[in-house]
Structure formats: structure tokens, C-alpha cells
Design brief:
Length: 184
């Protein structure tokens, strides 16, 4: 809909996976897994609703569609957005706070230790990222930064508050694909 969708398509193709952009219900029906990119969550939400994808996503989400959400995508999926009445899909049991890293450090790059992805640190770019303030009992925290969850998994949903599609490191996309195939 909006944001870094081309970069996700590229990353999946580099993993050797077929990938397409999804903007209609028909296109959503065609895919076996979905990425909701970073960008602007209010814009993505508005577009999903006006393109008639909101209900379709709720339905496929309930049917266990594997979803990779990054940054704004996490906000779109979240159960709640702290201090805001912005609507969200509620498919991922986390509460997020938008733009929560403050002005000076609202964009930064760091390296994360993510055991699930191996021993090499994972480069992580945060751009006006949300903070995950709390997670529900079914949510597994796979990585933290300054004591806050930045990569979480709930069933077949994988959600990162950073942007794996903006680095050359494909491990997170690969992990997601294996997860979507039921290998993880
Ligand atoms: N890089 C991003 O996706 C930023 C998210 C954006 N600040 C939002 O609140 O929607």
C-alpha cells in the first residue's frame, strides 16, 4: 500500500522466493504469506480500509496467514496503540507506542543479537520506530533493544520494529519463509 514494499519484494526474491505486490483482495487471495512494510501506519491503515482489504486481512489473519510486519506494519497489526485511538487490526497481541524513541534518536542503526538467526549480530535500522510496550502471553520475544522487545513472534506472525528489508542481511526474511513453510 505504502512504504518500503519494493524493498521487501526484492529481499524475498533474493531469498529465491516468488514475490508480488498486494493491493487488492484478489491479489491477497493469491499469496501464501504477506509482508506489511514500514512506512506510515496511518496511511497504510487508511489505504487498507479504502481498498477493501481490512476485512479480508482480518479473515486471513484468523486463518493463520503467515505475516511479516516491519515498523509501521507492527502498528497496523497491534492489539493496541498506547495514547492513541488509531484503529489497528489486533492480530498481534502487543501494545505499541508510535514514534517512541524521541526526536534526537528517532532514526538510528545498531546491531542486535538474535539467537534465532544465528551467532552473527544482525544490523538493524530503526526509523521513527514504535516501541513495543507490552506483549501478551502467546507472544515470544526474539530480540530486545534497551530492554524493549524489537522482534516478536506470535504463531505465524513475525514482527520487527526495525527494517530488515533495508539491509543486505537476508536472515530475517529467510527465517520468516521457513516459519511460513512450517519448518520453524
Ligand atoms: N519506519 C516506519 O515505519 C515508521 C513508522 C511511523 N512512524 C508510524 O508511526 O507509522
Amino acid at each position: 500500500m505504502q512504504g518500503a514494499f519494493r524493498e521487501h519484494v526484492d529481499a524475498f526474491r533474493r531469498c529465491g522466493c516468488e514475490a508480488m505486490e498486494v493491493r487488492t483482495r484478489e491479489e491477497l487471495d493469491e499469496v501464501a504469506a504477506l509482508a506489511i512494510p514500514g512506512g506510515e501506519s496511518t496511511a497504510i491503515t487508511k489505504l487498507l480500509r479504502s481498498f477493501g482489504l481490512w476485512e479480508a486481512l482480518l479473515k486471513r489473519g484468523a486463518e493463520d496467514l503467515p505475516i511479516l510486519a516491519t515498523c509501521a506494519g507492527v502498528i497496523v497489526l497491534a492489539r493496541g496503540i498506547v495514547g492513541s485511538d488509531q484503529v489497528s487490526l489486533g492480530l498481534l497481541d502487543v501494545a505499541v507506542r508510535r514514534n517512541a524513541y524521541g526526536r534526537q534518536v528517532d532514526s538510528f542503526e545498531t546491531e542486535l543479537k538474535i539467537e534465532a538467526l544465528g551467532t552473527e549480530p544482525v544490523p538493524a535500522i530503526f526509523i521513527r520506530a514504535p516501541i513495543i510496550e507490552s506483549v501478551g502471553p502467546k507472544v515470544e520475544v526474539l530480540a530486545t533493544y534497551r530492554e524493549k522487545a524489537v522482534l516478536v513472534r506470535q504463531g505465524r506472525i513475525l514482527a520487527a520494529t526495525f527494517h530488515p528489508e533495508l539491509t543486505a542481511d537476508l536472515r530475517l526474511h529467510q527465517y520468516f519463509l521457513e516459519m511460513a513453510e512450517g519448518k520453524r
